[in-house]
Design goal:
Helix content is 30%, strand content 22%. The chain is an alpha/beta fold. A hairpin with a 2-residue loop joins strand 25 and strand 26. Helix 3 packs across helix 8 and helix 11 crosses helix 12.
Length: 553
Amino acid sequence: MRPFLLLAALAFSAGAQPLLIHNAKVWTADPARPWAEAVLMDGDRIVAVGGNAEVAKRAAGAQRYDARGRLVIPGLNDAHLHFLSGSMGLSQVDLTGICTVPAMQKAVADYAKANPNKPWITGRGWEYYCFPNGRLPTRQDLDAVVSDRPVFLSAYDGHTGWANSKALERADINRATRFEGYGEIVKDARTGQPTGALKEGAQALVRKYIPAATRQEKLDALRRGLQLAAQLGLTSMQNAAGDEEELSLYEELLKNGELTVRIAFALSVPPGTALERADAIGKLKARYRDPQLRVIGVKLMMDGVIENYTAAMLAPYADKPETSGSPAWTPEAFKQMVTRCDRNGLQVLTHAIGDRGIRLTLDGYEAAARTNGRRDSRHRIEHIETIHPSELPRFAQLGVMPSMQPIHADPDTIHIWSRCIGPERVKLAFPWGALEKAGARLVFSSDWPASLSVNPLRGLHNAVNRRTIEGKPEGGWVPEQRVSLETALRAYTTSAAYAEFQESAKGMIKAGMAADLLILSQDLFAIKPIEIHRTSVVCNVFRGRIIYQAVTP
């Protein structure tokens, strides 16, 4: 049967009846009672969990949903994404999974033909390893199919942009143009002309000329994104970067009864920002405290990514020994900002991918604890793609949470990544297993749209299998970094809730907790791990109401 999505305004109407899900295999995530058969919800809360007969006694007048033995789990929590950006991308050029230059050119040409009135062609999703001989994409690749309008396409990770000649011309980027910030205008070594690739902050030179979306366009995009989130089983998300204007969009959807997720919001604080910005965000945290929309802290960027050599490494890159990347913050400026944020009760989420970037971030968190006194700050490091062994125990010692994206370690995408850092450092690539063994509490997410997929079940598959969906290579990729199914599930549920200080409110199927849960098409505990990616969401229950179902009950 064709999937459908119930309208949020209807789903949360006043006086809606309680909901009983029974005849289920319920993984509760509650250590005191890991398994059950039935769940009764009334309004926003779970009121009873247990055996079918036990719970049915309390379900007079409830709507009944027969799960027919399917697995029920808590709603999934994506602990790091960029939801507005991802939602806007749903109506732009999507190069995800397209991995030859001719195929990418065709996708861009087809989109341009279908959208003749768009002044700019924008999109994202291209991957570094898809270009021959390890080169970056060029303006000529795009000029061959669209030369009359500017085109600007972000890499799947968002850290490199790809512009055609018209876009470079519009931004007045030429041989003489210099960029002094964190990033690079890539230029041809022979001619000195810009190639069309722009790294990190240099992308802003072009982006500022792209017509800004209207508020209505952004709201419509978020509505599309919320439909996708409901279909994929996301009931909570932690938005890792943004500003007051984006925050106000979610506030409007919340007031209209259209917000079908719970959002924890961290606001962007770029390098060079005045310390007073932390004070202003502290006031926003006090203002935004709704269970569905909360400000939790700040997002900082310590470095870039390995594939374009902007991640800060302790030793030079294996295939580009003239560089080891560089941090976006000086150690002192970072310590000052983190200390100020911590003093304001703000959680700090820092993007750090290289081993040097991670060390500097941990040093900053440690300095804040020395200055302000140790408290339950739950500061986080986002991504952690490679790490020096000496840093592993510091996460548990400092109470820092490793916030990581299993989808980034998809073995189909790590060829260039591995070549950049060399075989020795690959041993601690995406070190989920090593961090767990060192006592850290893992939290997982997608980083959408800077990822291959926002689907948390795809991320779960990668975390458990550490190999391609097809099962090749048979030995897996750095298999010692895999985690168990239960660890991965907790990283998307209980630990994700803990990461946003909500462990007493959601993340488990337990009386008194948020009435957010999913019914899945397969029993993750019974199938072969390599089959996890074939699982889909049959029903999404948010705040005690069915907001998505793939089949009728």
